[in-house]
């Protein structure tokens, strides 16, 4: 076989969606992996916890994996590690991450004690590593979590710049301002291909500085006399720091609620990324020891996540906390596409309890961590890449970003829009999408199962959720082939049995007719045929009577 001279870039997640970022760089069969994230399920995926990248492409190629590099500690970049790492594991697997990312990854591994221990090498801005044909230099990028690293990847075909998630910020919190000099010096080394974060590509202007957000948050603190309940992602370390700083400024104690919030703050404090005065952080149980005006509750759930603290408060299910009049809720995180409705309902539920709600749309209390149009164009202009590949975002964001690239002077033929599973082929002269694809269908995580819930199981769940289920148990006399007595019926989520006596009477009659007809002729009885008949005929009958299609489960017992 002829040796491959081109570089192949294979996005397994994060292109055509927000979340579950993971990209492969393959040169002469050697593979570098960047990020392994997960995303939240869609609304029509009952029971699914997460969706993780499909790594079937790596099957049989495990030995060719040179290492894994992580850009930052957000779960859409690291969250899939516990679910995927065993499949690519080898004792000398090299993993690279910045100190905070490292800390967050290891802390999460604690929840999965059976997994192999990860050996992570810490890298910082300026670190250089070599993995097979790839040389990688890390450089810091502003985002809404500290210790976020962009990558300059030197490959045999040319230099690739991976921005990671980023925004330009001249007044960040807990972080240094964007180092444009550094970016320009990277550009001097000639960028063949730029991979840039598209999350904010549909939004005009420039992202807000973290400093502006702090000012707006401060205003809320100034005018609040009750408790402040600030909900955000546990991984928005900068936002958490701002809330803590503001609370200290306004004489408030801060109680952390939510497992991921507590653990992330704990790691960040140990590593020095979150700073608080002694005595600021208190236990949730101590809240009642202080007047309301002296309390901030920092919790998870700004996306309306079902299991998060804010949802428990809204549903009055929290073990010891309830909303009360005078409370102010701050929802400080931008809404991930697909979660809009859930967040709207949550907001209404909170307002109904007489609580004020501040949402990032009403005031600029959340900048998002992502560069908007002006910054994205600026990044392209600084890097002056020959080729451009938008990454991280819904399809519409990738398209919007490619428009920006054109405006910034990249010829249309030098821009490719790729989705998950596409294989992008690159050399000095050309970039194109290969005809071959890598498997990219969803791999769903449900409890301890990874990928075992597929399309069929999901369809059953959707059906059960829509129209419920209906179980018919018929006892048949082996000798006569006749149904004994009246078939038993169990219904869940279809009709309320007590109010549907007539429907059930007719159903029983029909089942007896179907069974007796099928067994009446004598000879061997094909029971699977009988069950199919019950399913079909009763299904039609239900539809004609109710316009519903419950899942019908016939059970025939011979005695
Ligand atoms: Zn991020």
Give the arrangement of secondary structure elements.
Blueprint: E1 7-13, E2 15-16, E3 22-27, E4 30-34, E5 50-52, E6 65-69, H1 75-78, H2 81-88, E7 95-97, H3 99-109, E8 120-122, E9 128-131, E10 134-140, E11 149-155, E12 158-162, H4 180-188, E13 193-197, H5 210-222, E14 228-231, H6 237-249, E15 253-257, H7 259-270, E16 281-282, E17 295-299, H8 309-314, E18 328-331, H9 340-352, E19 356-359, H10 373-383, E20 387-391, E21 393-394, H11 395-407, E22 422-426, E23 431-437, E24 443-446, E25 449-450, H12 455-467, E26 469-476, E27 488-492, H13 501-519, H14 527-546, E28 551-558
Parallel strand pairs: 2-21, 4-6, 6-7, 7-8, 12-13, 13-20, 14-17, 14-18, 15-16, 15-17, 18-19, 26-28
Antiparallel strand pairs: 1-3, 1-22, 3-4, 5-24, 9-10, 10-11, 11-12, 22-23, 24-25, 26-27
Helix pairs in contact: 3-7, 5-6, 10-11, 13-14
Describe the model.
- With about 550 residues, this protein is of the alpha/beta class.
- The chain is built from 14 helices and 28 strands.
- Strands 8-7-6-4-3-1-22-23 form an 8-stranded mixed β-sheet.
- Helix 3 packs across helix 7, helix 10 packs across helix 11 and helix 13 packs antiparallel against helix 14.
- The termini are far apart.
- The relative contact order is 0.12.
- The mean pLDDT is about 90.
- The protein binds zinc ion (ZN).
């Amino acid at each position: 076989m002829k040796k491959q001279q081109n570089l192949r870039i294979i996005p397994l997640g994060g292109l055509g969606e927000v979340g579950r970022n993971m990209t492969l760089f393959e040169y002469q069969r050697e593979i570098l992996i960047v990020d392994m994230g997960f995303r939240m399920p869609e609304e029509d995926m009952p029971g699914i916890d997460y969706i993780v990248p499909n790594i079937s492409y790596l099957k049989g190629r495990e030995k060719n994996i040179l290492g894994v590099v992580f850009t930052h500690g957000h779960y859409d970049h690291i969250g899939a590690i516990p679910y995927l790492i065993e499949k690519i594991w080898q004792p000398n697997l090299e993993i690279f991450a910045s100190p905070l990312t490292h800390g967050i990854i290891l802390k999460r591994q604690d929840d999965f004690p059976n997994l192999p221990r990860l050996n992570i090498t810490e890298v910082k801005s300026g670190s250089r590593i070599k993995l097979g044909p790839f040389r990688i230099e890390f450089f810091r990028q502003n985002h809404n979590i500290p210790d976020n690293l962009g990558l300059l990847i030197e490959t045999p075909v040319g230099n690739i710049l991976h921005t990671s998630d980023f925004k330009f910020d001249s007044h960040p919190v807990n972080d240094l301002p964007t180092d444009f000099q550094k970016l320009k010096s990277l550009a001097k080394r000639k960028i063949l291909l730029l991979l840039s974060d598209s999350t904010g590509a549909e939004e005009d202007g420039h992202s807000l500085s973290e400093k502006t957000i702090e000012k707006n948050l401060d205003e809320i603190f100034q005018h609040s006399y009750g408790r402040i309940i600030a909900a955000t992602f546990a991984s928005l370390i900068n936002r958490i720091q701002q809330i803590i700083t503001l609370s200290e400024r306004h004489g408030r104690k801060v109680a952390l609620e939510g497992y991921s919030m507590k653990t992330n703050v704990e790691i960040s404090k140990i590593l020095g990324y979150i700073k608080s005065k002694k005595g600021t952080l208190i236990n949730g149980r101590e809240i009642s020891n202080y007047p309301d005006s002296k309390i901030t509750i920092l919790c998870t759930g700004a996306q309306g996540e079902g299991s998060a603290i804010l949802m428990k408060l809204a549903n009055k299910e929290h073990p010891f906390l309830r909303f009360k009049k005078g409370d102010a809720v701050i929802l400080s995180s931008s809404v991930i596409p697909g979660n809009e409705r859930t967040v709207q309902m949550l907001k209404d539920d909170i307002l109904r309890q007489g609580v004020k709600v501040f949402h990032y749309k009403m005031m600029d209390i959340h900048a998002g961590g992502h560069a908007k149009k002006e910054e994205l164009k600026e990044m392209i202009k600084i890097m002056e890449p020959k080729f451009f590949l938008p990454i991280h975002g819904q399809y519409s964001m990738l398209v919007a970003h490619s428009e920006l690239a054109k405006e910034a002077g990249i010829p249309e033929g030098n821009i490719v829009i790729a989705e998950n599973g596409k294989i992008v082929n690159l050399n000095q002269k050309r970039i194109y999408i290969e005809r071959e694809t890598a498997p990219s269908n969803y791999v769903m995580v449900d409890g301890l199962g990874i990928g075992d819930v597929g399309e069929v199981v999901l369809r059953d769940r959707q059906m059960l959720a829509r129209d419920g289920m209906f179980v018919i148990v018929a006892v048949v006399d082996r000798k006569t082939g006749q149904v004994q007595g009246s078939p038993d019926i169990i219904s869940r989520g279809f009709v309320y049995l007590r109010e549907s006596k007539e429907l059930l009477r007719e159903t029983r009659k029909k089942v007896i007719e179907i069974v007796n007809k099928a067994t009446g002729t004598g000879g061997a009885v094909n029971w699977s045929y009988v069950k199919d008949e019950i399913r079909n005929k009763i299904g039609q009958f239900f539809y004609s009577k109710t316009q519903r299609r419950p899942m019908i489960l016939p059970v025939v017992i011979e005695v």
